[in-house]
Fold these 2 entries.
Entry 1:
Amino acid sequence: MNAALHNPPASSHGNPGYADICLEVRGLRKSYGSQEVVAGIDLTLRRGECFGLLGPNGAGKTTTLRLCLGLTDPDGGSITMLGHPVPLAAREARVRIGVVPQTDNLDPDFTARENLLVYGRYFGLSVARMRERIPALLEFAGLSNRADDNIKSLSGGMKRRLTLARALINDPDLIFLDEPTTGLDPQARHLIWERLRQLVGQGKTILLTTHFMDEAERLCHRLAIMDHGRMIVDGSPRELVATHIEPQVVEVYGDGAEAWASERGTQLSERCEQTGETVFCYAHDVEPLLQELEQQPQLRYLHRPANLEDVFLRLTGRDLRD
Ligand code: ADP
């Protein structure tokens, strides 16, 4: 990767504690009308960590990000970002922050390079500094050969990479990403993940929201599952799976799966849950269950280890949230 993209962290920010803790949130609260959208959240992000905020729609993830960025005023609690109190000194903190919003808000009238230039000016970067930095950012985004193309001609994945590159224009220490890969195909997602890993490898700190459990499992050192404005659990993906769910899952499909589950499935597993036509059986030892299913040719099944999605669904329920 191009060395010009990443400057070694400055040692003289003058904010005690900044070196280690990038973001400290205590008792954060926000209501809209009578609805408490963020209901007393605590969060600590250490330097070089990738932290994931997961939760169903309406859980309060985006509001939490907006509060941390100083874009929404809290009703209570405290936020310290890169040593600065937010919202009081949000402007100072944002100098060292990168933001990738949920939807790309690139300027459609400009080229890829011009979009980076305009954003750099917003941060007050000198022309010389931008000349040095923009080629490296375009290379990071895999867009060196599209630098002078209009945004309208770029694919969804390219736009997302450009938005990420744009968020890096000020060489931020802490990067916020709101659903970084929603709407992308698998190839484009993998490329974004690779880039995010590079950034973490350089010591950047990342706070991301996502609906993709595999994304969280792959990228995040730690994550929290939020619902109804509260953090229900937090820990490493592995810890959460080990603590909150039986280790084995057998998914059963086919005619009569429900009737089979209510009679045999519940006897042979610790817990059965049904969604539509599928029954999920959770157990420590699935051998008896698998032997039984061998005798049921009308049923199809899939045996797999439990994962973060199982934890998520157990803790937040299987009901649709719109
Ligand atoms: P998530 O990002 O987890 O989907 P949000 O933080 O966007 O959740 O929203 C949480 C809740 O707060 C939702 O019910 C949403 O409708 C409500 N909400 C968010 N922003 C506003 C606002 N500006 N005014 C009123 N309600 C809002």
Entry 2:
Amino acid sequence: MNSTAQTRTFTKAAALKGTITVPGDKSISHRSLMLSALAVGESRIEGLLEGEDVLATAAAMRAMGADVVRGDGGVWRIYGVGVGGLMQPQQALEMGNSGTSTRLLMGLVASHALTATFVGDASLSKRPMGRVMEPLSTMGAEFTASPGGRLPLTLRGISPAVPIEYRLPVASAQVKSAILLAGLNTPGITRVIEPVPTRDHSERMLAGFGAALTVEVQADGARVISLEGEAELRPQTIVVPGDPSSAAFPMVAALLVAGSQVTIENVGLNATRAGLVDLLLEMGGNIEVINPREVGGEPVGDLVVAASTLTGVEPDPARAPSMIDEYPVAFVAAALAKGRSVFRGLEELRVKESDRITTMAEGLRMIGAQVEELEDGLVIDGTGGELLAGGGPVATKLDHRIAMSFAVAGLVSSGGVQIDDMRPVSTSFPGFVPLLESLGGIA
Ligand code: S3P
């Protein structure tokens, strides 16, 4: 990230029109690099997200012995070291802003006999790592962490590690994945039970690389994921679909800006990720999914989105994991909807790149929205389609999704919304501003 903040004001837009694609899925990109680095031979990744978070994972895999090369045309080639073959990194692993890199790599390192130090930016250094340290300690890894179980931290892995059966106390795909990745180089069966389903990209990709993995769904809906350790992974060609969490921003912009009609092609629509589309449909959004197909073992479709009058909602907290990263922009949609929206059960939003409940409440109020902050969510009284007043500068607190959410809010404000710093956007969505601008209507 450059050293000077990039402020930017987004002002009232005219109709957005056009057909776009968004960059590759961040979750799938991280996992494709990690698993390729553990397969013996050459894997190829097409459509990898080349955002700062994923590049941090690529650098870490290189530092631990894999050959990771970006070839012509943006196809990445990875020559893996084999499960159990990771090597001692010579320097601290720089994780930047990326919680996914940190937690998943902690899992990988935990079952290798090597020591790694993880460091990150001010946002990442505030985020809790105890949720992965706890199960990985049971598997035999040791940690020296900063107070509160935070970064910087040093992990001493162990081989062989001890397989565990672990019931997730928080609905977190990162914790689930960290344990499964540790289980790859652990003898016996490692088992994770998730009472509430979270994104299942790790399970799909592990199976795709040839690991013996089973998923059993219990009567109460809990998923039991069992992985046989000491796996041999076979190299793959992976095609990464567009990120639904990135598509969320042009999707909400197209719904809110009068007269808009936007097609977003090649969007991942895995049911464990597609909660925002369902929510916006319930709010009355005009969204059509066309050309449903499968890409790289993941469901994908094109979204045709037209400007709509939205109505407030009270979404069931049980759907939170399927749209956990989309709440900030969903709050913007609610701020323009007709009537009241009540969002509850969202404690996890307080430990994302920023405290997304407080950051959104403060920012939305600053630009004229009616918002009440609860311990576990927000109550938002929408304008019924009237423009927001605008204002700022809104504090993004090193959080890419806060910056992009308020950019969307600016497009439906009479006075414009000033964002204090757009730099964090490059962690997940390089080219966000030019892509929005390509839809016209933006001054
Ligand atoms: C992710 C899981 C989610 C999500 C994050 C990416 C992943 O985090 O918020 O952006 O790739 O596994 P949690 O597991 O903490 O919910």
